[in-house]
Design a protein that fits this description.
The protein has about 600 residues and is an alpha+beta fold. Helices cover about 20% and strands about 20% of the residues. The longest helix is centred in the N-terminal third of the chain and has 18 residues. The chain is globular. The strands form seven sheets. Strands 1, 4, 5, 6, 7, 8, 14, 15, 19, 20, 24, 27 and 28 form a 13-stranded mixed β-sheet that branches. A four-stranded antiparallel β-sheet has the order 17-16-18-23, covered by helices on one side. A three-stranded mixed β-sheet has the order 10-9-11, with no helix packed on it.
Length: about 600
Amino acid sequence: MGAVEPCKSLSPTQVFWGDTHVHSAFSADSYLFGNLTLSPEHAYRFARGEEVKTSTGQQAQLQRPLDFLVVADHAENLGMMQGIESREPALLAIPGMKKWVETFEALGDNKGGFVRFFSKLGNPELNDAKAQQVFWDLSVKMADEANQPGTFTTLPGFEWSPTPDGNNLHRVIIFREGGGFADQVLPFATFNSEDPRDLWNYLAQYETTTGGQVFAIPHNANGSNGLMFPAESPDGRPIGREYAALRAQWEPLIEVVQYKGDAEAPPLLSPQDAYADFYTWDQGNLLASAPKEPWMLRHEYARGALKLGLEIELRTGANPYQFGMIGSTDSHTSLSSVDDNDFRGNHPGNEPQADRIAQTLIPASHEKLADIMVKDIAAAGSAAVWATENTRSAIFDALRRREVYATTGPRITLRFFGGWNFDDGSASDPLHVSRGYQHGVPMGSVMPRRSAGAGAPTFLVSAMKDPMGANLDRVQIIKGWVDQEGASQERVYDVLWSEDQALEDGELPRMPSGVVGATYRNDRGAVQLSGTWRDPDFNLQEAAFYYVRVLEIPTPNWVAHDIAQFELSAPQTTAQEHRERAYSSPIWYRPGADRLADE
């Protein structure tokens, strides 16, 4: 599968909102958490705006339907728990299945106790190809039946979930086509391999065999304890060109934000960045079974990985971490929920209720780690896609070419173009989007060759607030580069801000909070921010990347809404406000682009 070029012949004019990471009762862990009956079909119904009864009996409906959805149930024992209860013939034919059924029946209503039989996310004793095929075929069929071209898009998918020693290496796998393609293979599970290179071989074989298209999206890199973005191969040697090229080919995106934390940048790696600490989960690995060490952080946060990718490309000629960024939920309730004022939780056990902010989400199993509490989770994230239409092919292709961005939930509209000759009037031009495609490249792309007479690269940025959300505080451009000594660097530039703010000694001060309980002032900030920016520190010889971060004014988080709704006393040291945000996919500059276009 070759790289997908920026879309210029038919420029995307619409942004579509979706979620590429939802779990239904077909996921063994979701079922054991208490999601016993909500299948992928229920997930699609909820996402397109229908009212659904949750696993705890609550009525739930989205304030705003989604445009697309990927149900990505765990490949490990896919559908097995529902199969045990439904007595699927293919499952009953598994040797020793009677024992499992009898054990399950003996638990009565305490089906969650079945988790003690599971060593990780699944149990290899239940791994059976025929049984897996039953539920994978059903998953693909449900996706096909829910797909409504032009109105609501579904893409078949699953999650590969290796967790060696409690460290997260999970990927969501997304298929472009449904029945007749995706159902020609079985989902690739941890039981098959825990090596990402074997996953990439599986993806390549799928494309060769079926003629379809597929790719993978890593998530929760912040729980990998340094494994997600390595500098070395498993054999201990520095990553070579082949590994780098394969990873870039098969993993064009990362899920940078979801309920288990934000993975853009931690304060320890970016101490000069006042806004780096956003739901940072950096005390331990995914299962809270091993503490974090400082060296691990650059191998599990997006900004560190983007810089590492430049270093590897300088050495090998290929960048393994040339990825775009999206957000999603990782919901295990079958319900994609991101709004803080109506947060549905991510497990059935933490759906709206008076005591959920006091609940433990992940109990620590290491003496140096504290339990991860439900009050510390984020209300997940959203995937924004610039595409020509709301269809499988258009959504998939936009994801594949990285013309996408992440938000922490709000539907902030964000455009980002890079070129060599955008002037100060470009942003105010009614045709600035057309100019962006005509004279530059969109987010997710590599800068074009430098035009004659051009100096530093210029960037065209436009951000508009969520119509139902908070005003915008500022727009920042984050730059990372490799200097002449071969060391990677970074800098955050404030490039646009609202009229009610002003620089003080060359710095843009932090906007004071206007949050009171579950309310906030929305009479400051900006509805829209747009403009052009030229890199004042550009060096022709230094490889670099640039991405946009948009910050909202302070708003109450879901904990504040719970405290108000259930009339609770706020626990001490409990955050009740945050600055929601959007992250664009980067634009890369390669020193080879310093050659003039007319040379």
